[in-house]
């Protein structure tokens, strides 16, 4: 069973930064694409970012492009989401997920249906 554990959430003011981490203790995700999603209260889960298994390609939602950066450290079995210039609308529970699908080009990894395993989520609150 693939297990994903997120951490790094918290409360920050507008313009602040946070770095989320997603650890796969069992090392099963090495060949999986990893995605980040978020879900605000009363809203559907939405795509934030994704990174391919080799780290060579990343994908971002328009709303976070230029502010968020996805990266991975295979030696530490960890995927990161660096979030800068945070806004109140970034407030949500953030989830990491693993996908065994192979995809290239636009629109990749944006649907929750493309993912096989999910973490439990970490909460991010941005105050104005």
Helices and strands in order, then pairings?
Layout: E1 5-7, E2 10-13, E3 18-23, E4 33-39, E5 46-51, E6 58-60, E7 68-73, E8 78-83, E9 92-99, E10 117-118, E11 122-127
Parallel strand pairs: 2-11
Antiparallel strand pairs: 1-3, 3-8, 4-5, 4-9, 5-6, 7-8, 9-10, 9-11
Report on this structure.
The chain has 128 residues and is mostly beta strands. The chain is globular, with a radius of gyration of 13 Å. Strands 2, 4, 5, 6, 9, 10 and 11 form a seven-stranded mixed beta sheet that branches. A four-stranded antiparallel beta sheet has the order 1-3-8-7, with no helix packed on it. The protein has strands spanning 5-7, 10-13, 18-23, 33-39, 46-51, 58-60, 68-73, 78-83, 92-99, 117-118, 122-127. The N and C termini lie far apart (40 Å).
Short description:
With 128 residues, the chain is an all-beta fold. It has no helices and eleven strands. Strands 2, 4, 5, 6, 9, 10 and 11 form a seven-stranded mixed β-sheet that branches. It has a four-stranded antiparallel β-sheet with strand order 1-3-8-7, with no helix packed on it.
Structural class per helix/strand content?
mainly beta
Mean pLDDT: 93
The main β sheet shows up as: 7 strands, mixed
H-E string: EEEEEEEEEEE
**N-end to C-end Cα span:** 40 Å
Q: Tally the beta strands.
A: 11
Low-confidence stretches: none
**Beta-strand percentage?**
35-45%
């Amino acid at each position: 069973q693939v297990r994903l554990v997120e951490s790094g959430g918290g409360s920050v003011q507008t313009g602040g930064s946070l770095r989320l981490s997603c650890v796969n203790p069992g090392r099963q995700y090495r060949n999986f694409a990893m995605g980040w999603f978020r879900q605000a209260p009363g809203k559907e889960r939405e795509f934030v970012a994704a990174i391919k298994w080799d780290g060579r390609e990343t994908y971002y939602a328009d709303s976070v492009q230029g502010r968020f950066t996805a990266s991975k450290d295979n030696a530490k079995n960890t995927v990161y989401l660096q979030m800068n210039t945070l806004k109140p609308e970034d407030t949500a529970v953030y989830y990491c997920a693993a996908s065994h699908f192979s995809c290239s080009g636009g629109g990749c990894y944006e649907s929750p249906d493309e993912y096989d395993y999910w973490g439990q989520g970490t909460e991010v609150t941005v105050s104005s």
